[in-house]
Amino acid sequence: MISNLAADTQAFTSNAFLVSGDRTVLVDTGSNFDVVSKVRERVDGLDAVVLTHTHPDHIGNLSEVVSAFDDGPDGDGIEVWGYDGSRDDVDRAIADEETVRLGDDEYVALHTPGHKDDHLCFYSPDADVLFAGDLVFQNGSFGRTDLEEGDRETLIESIDRVADRVNGTLREMHTGHGPSVSNDPYSHIELAAKMARQA
Questions:
Q1: Is the dihedral of CA 56, 66, 113, 85 positive or negative?
Q2: The sheet that has 2-4: what strands, in order across it?
Q3: How high is the pLDDT of residue 74?
Q4: Section 167-173 average pLDDT
Q5: Cβ–Cβ < 8 Å for 177, 14
Q6: Domains of the chain
Q7: Where are the alpha helices (DSSP H) in 34-184?
Q8: Nearest CA to 161 among 139, 127, 129, 136?
Q9: pLDDT at 161
Q10: 37: pLDDT strictly greater than 60
Q11: Can you say whether residue 67 is alpha, beta or left, with left for phi > 0 and alpha for psi between -120 and 50 degrees?
């Protein structure tokens, strides 16, 4: 089950997706709202936090989440997984094309820079679900490239990579901001590829 814990939040934040199941994971923590209580309303604990990327709106609540669920057997708490293992707040690096379990399904991690160098998307062929982070959004919108590490041509290459990888049967696309897309999400990716070239 996938729940957007930031859905009703008015503060500046990214979405924060609780993926419950065999391996209960929080995909991005969001910022500026009490995500810990929202997690606890739904599950008893977390197995890991998985980051699409490390912009402040996506990891602002990270320290609170790690502290709140600091109940690991070694006292080290839950692990934070992300692309850049050199960061102090990332415990385990996720390699491009590595498979990670989110909830009940296996997802392939796709390194998709252009918005930020450490950006990852997560795609499950079996579940037909994509966590797109800030790569693409509803109605052909796409990630900003005017921030540090942003690059429009690289972003277009990343969008094309995801479009080539997922298929027309994609059932759900969960984005870093705005509503998730369940009505022909593949067409929104195609439109984002087109719009990014025109912008």
A1: positive
A2: 2-4, 17-19, 25-27, 48-50, 79-82, 92-93
A3: 46
A4: 91
A5: yes
A6: 2-198 (3.60.15.10)
A7: 35-40, 56-59, 62-68, 152-165
A8: 136
A9: 97
A10: yes
A11: alpha
